[in-house]
TrEMBL record:
Name of the protein described by the UniProt record: Alpha N-terminal protein methyltransferase 1
Membrane-spanning ranges: none
EC number: 2.1.1.244
Reactions this protein catalyses: N-terminal L-seryl-L-prolyl-L-lysyl-[protein] + 3 S-adenosyl-L-methionine = N-terminal N,N,N-trimethyl-L-seryl-L-prolyl-L-lysyl-[protein] + 3 S-adenosyl-L-homocysteine + 3 H(+); N-terminal L-alanyl-L-prolyl-L-lysyl-[protein] + 3 S-adenosyl-L-methionine = N-terminal N,N,N-trimethyl-L-alanyl-L-prolyl-L-lysyl-[protein] + 3 S-adenosyl-L-homocysteine + 3 H(+); N-terminal L-prolyl-L-prolyl-L-lysyl-[protein] + 2 S-adenosyl-L-methionine = N-terminal N,N-dimethyl-L-prolyl-L-prolyl-L-lysyl-[protein] + 2 S-adenosyl-L-homocysteine + 2 H(+)
Alphabetized GO MF terms: N-terminal protein N-methyltransferase activity
Top EC class for this record: transferase
Binding site for S-adenosyl-L-methionine: G43, R48, Q108
Lineage: Eukaryota, Fungi, Dikarya, Ascomycota, Pezizomycotina
GO cellular component terms given for this protein: cytoplasm
GO BP field: methylation
């Protein structure tokens, strides 16, 4: 989970901050420069993104993570920004029904644990949970399969999807793709990583 790769994690967090800042500049809302009231880190792991990025843009960050011992660690993380950890949901995203309204729903390196059908149903729930000026962000590895297929990993039952597959599933969920970009600066040999900014 990048714990042993601080340099990659730093590049990743900086890339996320840059992408989100650009997005907010290009699509200004009334509260363009204010901290967002509530965000959620989905598939948060030990809270690397919560602590290192989301706490810098949100006042409160909720957490969804199915592994209890990871979720517990989030609360003990030192936040880089002024935001704090809010509600912690120990559950998978396929089961999670948002109870709050969110200005930012951040999904990173976790959607491969959902089947295509579960992902579409999940995005449909996100659609109802995002505020009018809010964003659903997906940041995931991209399949590099030469035939343009998704790559299944039997060991952890996850899937690395193609860019085309993600776009197809966003359409199925009736989410609009507003901006997409590849994360820069990662070492060669890793899967390319792509951001998608979505709105209902
Ligand atoms: C590679 S880690 C990424 C953690 C964090 N998003 C980050 O970028 O540092 C994948 C995380 O997805 C979580 N996960 C596994 N199955 C999941 C599911 N069904 N729903 C949500 N998260 C899941 C794992 O427990 C793990 O914490």
């Amino acid at each position: 989970m990048l714990g042993g790769f601080p340099e990659i994690s730093r590049t990743d967090l900086k890339g996320s901050a840059n992408f989100f800042a650009k997005l907010r500049r290009e699509h200004p809302s009334q509260s363009a420069n204010d901290a967002l009231q509530r965000g959620v880190d989905c598939g948060a792991g030990i809270g690397r993104v919560t602590a290192g990025f989301l706490s810098t843009v949100c006042e409160v960050v909720d957490v969804v993570e199915p592994v209890g011992k990871f979720a517990q660690e989030v609360v003990g993380q030192k936040m880089v920004g002024g935001g704090s950890v809010g509600r912690v949901y120990v559950t998978g995203l396929e089961e999670w029904v948002p109870e709050a309204r969110y200005d930012l729903i951040w999904n990173q390196w976790c959607l491969g644990h959902l089947t295509d059908k579960q992902l579409v149903a999940y995005l449909e729930r996100c659609k109802k949970a995002v505020t009018i000026d809010g964003w659903v962000i997906v940041k995931e590895n991209m399949s590099t399969n030469v035939n343009g297929d998704d790559i299944f990993d039997q060991t952890d039952s996850s899937v690395t999807r193609t860019d085309q597959k993600f776009r197809k599933l966003f359409k199925e969920a009736d989410m609009r793709l507003i901006k997409t970009e590849v994360q820069r600066g990662f070492p060669k040999g890793l899967y390319p990583v792509r951001f998608y900014a979505l709105k209902p």
